Amino acid sequence: MVMQLSFLEIRNLSFSYNQKRMVLKHIDLSVEKGEWIAILGHNGSGKSTLAKTIVGLLRPAEGSITVDGTLLSDETAYDIRRKVGIVFQNPDNQFVGVTVKDDIAFGMENLSVPRAEMIEKIAFFAEKVGMAEYLEKEPSALSGGQKQRIAIAGILAMKTDMIIFDEATSMLDPTSRRELMDYIRELHDEGLTVLMITHDIEEALMADRLVVLKDGAVFADDTAEHLFKRPEAFREAYLELPAALKIYYELEAAGDMTPPLATTLWRFGSGK
Fold first, then answer.
1. In a domain, 101, yes or no
2. Which terminus of the chain, N or C, has fewer Cβ atoms within 10 Å?
3. Using CA atoms, how far apart are residues 143 and 159, in angstroms rounded to an integer?
């Protein structure tokens, strides 16, 4: 009997920048197609390093990464990036075009998409992310949230099955941050596989599953509902609980009546 692989399979993954200290230590992780996984961790826990190894920007010291049945290697990295896109913390690091239109087109040009099809897709995905009126603008003239949307449009135009958001909201103002998170939720509802790298627990509450890294290793992997019944797990991983959850546990400890465990704080906060 042949075992069916998950869309993303990471096995025994380790990585070191200088051969002295392992930044990632024997990571095992599976992500199903259509899942939303949040990777949580303190600064230096290895979150961003993990994201870069998945798309082949860093070569692991040991272990394997398989995406949709394809084993990641120097020879297959390009094919992997056609299936998995990444939006970085600072979108300026991703822009290569003079205009928004050029930037959305860049990935498709590398895939040799016919020009007529490319023009159609530029218009379609710019409209999809709410940026159709900015196609002739220079990326430098956009706000942080608008830049992130353009980065997403360029990835979607390449027909990727999964997007990694590497601390993509950390440089945004609260309004732009909430708008981007709401848009990520829409994409997920449409079937996109999402891997979100974050240290923000409130953002992570939107995910199907939470994977907590501590000192480069997987410390916990479970649903938000189950993990938030163990608040000590977050403290042990050097993560700060949201204020609302702190209040919840204080009320619970005092024996007062409390609402159901708040695993949807973000939805309540956004009015959804």
1. yes
2. N
3. 25
**Mean pLDDT for the chain overall:** 85
> Residue 117's closest CA among 149, 155, 157, 151?
157
Sheet holding 36-41, edge to edge: 84-87, 162-166, 193-198, 36-41, 209-214, 217-222
Segments in the chain forming alpha helices (H): 47-54, 77-83, 100-110, 115-128, 144-157, 174-189, 201-204, 224-227, 231-236, 243-254, 265-270
Residue 130 belongs to some domain of the structure: yes
The predicted model gives 214-223 an average pLDDT of: 94
Q: How far apart are CA 93 and CA 65, in angstroms?
A: 25
The CA distances from residue 60 to 95, 192, 214, in Å, are 26, 26, 18
Q: What is the tens place of the pLDDT at every residue in 32-44?
A: 999 999 999 988 8
Could you say which DSSP state residue 134 is in? G
CB 130 within 8 A of CB 149: yes
CATH number at residue 201: 3.40.50.300
Residue 270: pLDDT over 50: no
Residue 11 in domain? no
CB 13 within 8 Å of CB 27: yes
CA geometry: angle at 88 spanning 172 and 181, to 5°? 50
Between 66 and 171, name the one with better pLDDT.
66
Q: 194: domain range?
A: 34-60+75-240
Identify residue 187 by its one-letter amino acid code.
L
Distance (Å, whole) CA 15 – CA 21: 9
Asked whether residue 190 is domain-assigned, the answer is: yes
Could you give the angle at the alpha carbon of 6 between the alpha carbons of 214 and 162, nearest 5°?
Answer: 75
3 state SS of 227: helix
259 φ/ψ angles, rounded to the nearest 5 degrees? -70, 170
The CA distance from 224 to 36, in Å, is 12
